[in-house]
Amino acid sequence: MVEAARAFADRMAARRTIRDFRPDPVPMEVIEEAVRVAGTAPSGAHVQPWRFVVLTDPERKRQLRAAAEVEEREFYARRASPEWLAALAPLGLDWRKPFLEVAPVVIVVFEVHQGPHSPRPYYVKESVGIAVGMLITALHQAGLATLTHTPSPMRFLNEVCGRPREERPYVVMPVGYPAPDATVPDLTRKPLSEILIRD
Ligand SMILES: Cc1cc2nc3c(=O)[nH]c(=O)nc-3n(C[C@H](O)[C@H](O)[C@H](O)COP(=O)(O)O)c2cc1C
């Protein structure tokens, strides 16, 4: 058991957020199985308040990128505080979001709030966050790279994805294989001794 846990932790430690993708298609069955994993997440009162919209159509992805870049230009030029921009600087991010078009799959995750067919949901953000963590884990385990992308604001995603107002965008996740020349920021993670407190 310990060996398996260690091997899994090592595998997860190798996950990195990828921002440059190859356009090559990925097996749709893998995406479906990963969403199935996400759908096993625990949720407050078992309301399962999530929706996963899988975009692969090039025209849809082009629209997504165009709409996102309108918001991102505004964000970088005016909306972001100097502190926020300073925190993003080491990651080398800017308003351009080519990955929304280049990645073969983009999964847009929505929180499902009260609607005609759902009971009142509890702990929606917590539940969807756990489901997204499981989605990232499942995709990584299958050998696919992901980017956790949070445009600000996100409401334009309802229109791009054709989803009703009671669904609120949570995250946009391009999925695919890393581009051959993809690089990642030189980050370190907090050691176990810092994040784990024992009695
Ligand atoms: C809630 C959340 C929002 C994020 N938003 C963005 C984003 O909008 N754009 C981006 O390039 N990366 C985004 N990231 C990725 C983080 O920058 C990345 O996870 C972090 O730098 C650590 O790198 P790693 O995932 O390679 O370990 C986000 C991550 C999280 C968890």
From TrEMBL:
Keyword field contains Transferase: no
Domain Nitroreductase residue range list: 13-177
KW Flavoprotein (keyword) present: yes
Keywords tagged on the record: Flavoprotein, FMN, Oxidoreductase
Pfam families listed in its UniProt record: Nitroreductase
Name the record gives this protein: Nitroreductase family protein
Protein's organism: Micromonospora echinofusca
